[in-house]
Amino acid sequence: TEIYTLSLHDALPIYRDAVSGVPLRRPVTGIGAPWQAVYDSESHSVGVALRQGFGEALTLDGLVVAKYGDPRPGPDTPATTAIAFTSSGDRVATGDFAGNVRIFDKRGAATGVSMLEQGRVQQVDFSPDDSLLLTLSAAGNATVWQSRSGVEAHRLAGPSPFVCASFAHFGGKPHALFGTRDGRVLLYDLDDDHLLLRAREIW
Q1: For the segment 104-120, what is each residue's pLDDT rounded down to a tens digit?
Q2: What DSSP line would sit under 149-202, residue for residue?
Q3: Is 90 left (phi over 0), alpha (psi -120 to 50) or beta?
Q4: Using an 8 Å Cβ cutoff, are 154 and 190 in contact?
Q5: Over the stretch 148-190, which tens digit does the pLDDT of each residue have?
Q6: End-to-end C-alpha distance for the chain, whole angstroms
Q7: DSSP state of 87
Q8: pTM of the model
Q9: DSSP one-letter string for 5-31
Q10: Backbone angles phi, psi at 101, to 5 degrees
């Protein structure tokens, strides 16, 4: 099992042995091989992006409470490679190996909002006010979308491919923070795509 990124902000998940029910402090293979796992502090659930081609929301006891994507994926269904919750917990975004980005409600119903990134989706992230969605491709390109409509708002590329990305909100407007393959940290003002900060890697 490979877990590429793991972000648990407020609590650690409790995994239980399927037979005995004894809590385990390690991932178990019952949910498949995840690409990514994130914690939603609003609903106290864990979102998991699975290679089988869908995402799941789990309680901290390991119970599946929602599925995002095809509940019966076939052999050609692209692996789900990224997942993120809105800050309010009312919507979930997933990205897959083929570049598809979709938004679901918290119960797993499709909202009809979908986007297409340039290749495998490595990361998705909602802005603090949930109005924007940031997607990062494995090729190192990033796109910012209007999360309610799926309309592209910004397409960003750095001097070196991006390897990680997240939103930062200050000064009354959103910014996008990126780490690059050559060790830089870049901060973009999303109002005008202006480069605000560039720094060398410090560790």
Answers
A1: 998 889 999 999 998 99
A2: T--EEEEE--SS-EEEEEEEEETTEEEEEEEETTSEEEEEETTTTEEEEEEE--
A3: alpha
A4: yes
A5: 999 999 998 888 999 999 998 777 788 889 999 988 888 888 8
A6: 28
A7: T
A8: 0.78
A9: EEE-SS----EE-TTT--EESS--GGG
A10: -120, 130
